[in-house]
Amino acid sequence: MVTQLSSRTAGINIQDLGKMDYSQALALQQGLREQRINDTISDTVLLVEHNPIYTIGKDPVAEESLVRSELPAPSIKVDRGGKITYHGPGQLVAYFIFKMHLSEVGNFVDMIENLTVETVNDFGIDCYNRKDEKDNYGKYIRGAWCLQEKVHRKIAAQGLETKRAGLDEKTQQHYLVTMHGCALNVNTDLRYFKSINPCGFTYDVMTSMQEMAGKECSMTQVKETFTQKIKAWISDNK
Fold first, then answer.
1. Could you tell me which residues are beta bridge partners of residue 174?
2. E strands within the chain?
3. What's the rounded Cα separation, in Å, for the pair 197 and 136?
4. Taking the domains of the chain in order of start, what are their residue ranges?
5. Cβ atoms of residues 85 and 52 within 8 Å
6. 237 — pLDDT class (breaks 50, 70, 90)
7. 55-84 pLDDT per residue, tens
8. CA neighbor of 45 nearest in space, from 130, 120, 112
9. Which residue in 127, 146, 182, 199 is the catalytic one?
10. What is the mean pLDDT of residues 32-41?
11. 199 catalytic per annotation
12. Could you tell me the end-to-end alpha-carbon distance of the chain, in angstroms, rounded to an integer?
């Protein structure tokens, strides 16, 4: 069980944005982050689907090793952790604007990973994490995974950005506020991953709930399940 986040307010605001361009959602996150730093809003989760776009994180990896061919959609560099990934229709993206102590970030990353793993499992798809393994770059492997024809396939990716948010006078610990979060492939068009080495893996590492289940999955039901998982985590850690 993830430990309680000491700075979390009693309530949590979960917003379903529907479909929104990435740049618009990024600007919204940045505005909400400043409000969370100033304690004018509670912890917030944004649920959204994007138009096709590639995002490149700040991990120190040469871009030419991540892009295999001409990209069929725009790309943008962002300040989250991680390498390159794709966002598009049929993918559930969740952004977390949460305030916590610096020492709690590791547990929070685990929580996000558990949310995606448990959501996928609830749809009868065996899903797991690989957080104790390292990739070819020596970094621990994050996200949600499924075994497909005896090969690990990635069904959800994650990456956070944090910003200092003052000092907790009682504990003398620094506060941080997070941005970004995770992306779960529900009915994603996996062909978009062929142009990249997503998250530093080969292009064919990605899968989706649709591919694993052999049928289209209801985005509405996936959102409802994911939302209930968030609420259950909040309730368990009050």
1. 167
2. 12-19, 43-49, 53-56, 75-77, 84-87, 91-97, 99-101, 144-148, 151-168, 173-185
3. 12
4. 12-236
5. no
6. low
7. 988 765 666 668 878 888 988 888 876 778
8. 112
9. 199
10. 95
11. yes
12. 12
Residue tagged 């998982």 (tokens)? 229
- Tell me how long the chain is: 238
| Whole-number Cα distances in Å, 13 to 49, 110, 113 | 18, 20, 20
Helix residue ranges, H only, the chain = 22-37, 105-121, 209-213, 219-236
Q: Nearest Cα to 184, choosing from 205, 211, 160, 154? A: 154
Q: What is the pTM of this model?
A: 0.90
Section 200-227 average pLDDT: 92
1, pLDDT greater than 70 = no
- 115's tokens: 């949310």
Tell me yes or no: is domain 12-236 CATH 3.20.20.60. Answer: no
Q: How far apart are CA 22 and CA 3, in angstroms?
A: 31
